[in-house]
Write a structure and sequence with these properties.
This protein has 101 residues and is of the alpha+beta class. It is built from five helices and three strands, in the order H-H-E-H-H-E-E-H.
């Protein structure tokens, strides 16, 4: 696991805390390593192009997704390692305060 600081985790959680971005991210995660085209996300979620672009930009800036261009098609691919790092950060000290009798 890469070192995750609280600012990085907060940025990721902030982006995922918006229902539209979370819906987009779920579509990207479901697509697997091959990714999903922006057009398919737009069609699936019925989001206007400019709005979708804005939300994808936020997810990308939080390092939750990467983009790949094939010809005229733009694909979004989940950064699964970053997602795992965020989850690990949240779980890292789980239950350390519990006392064992």
């Amino acid at each position: 696991m890469l070192f995750m600081n609280i600012e990085m985790v907060a940025k990721a959680l902030k982006e995922l805390g918006h229902k539209t971005r979370l819906s987009i991210y779920k579509q990207v995660v479901k697509a697997g390593q091959q990714g999903i085209s922006v057009g398919d996300i737009q069609e699936e979620l019925s989001i206007p192009g400019s709005t979708l672009s804005h939300h994808i930009s936020g997810l990308s800036q939080a390092d939750l997704i990467h983009q790949r261009r094939e010809g005229r098609t733009l694909f979004c691919i989940a950064n699964y390692q970053h997602l795992e790092d965020v989850i690990d950060f949240l779980k890292d000290e789980c239950c350390v305060g519990d006392s064992i009798n």
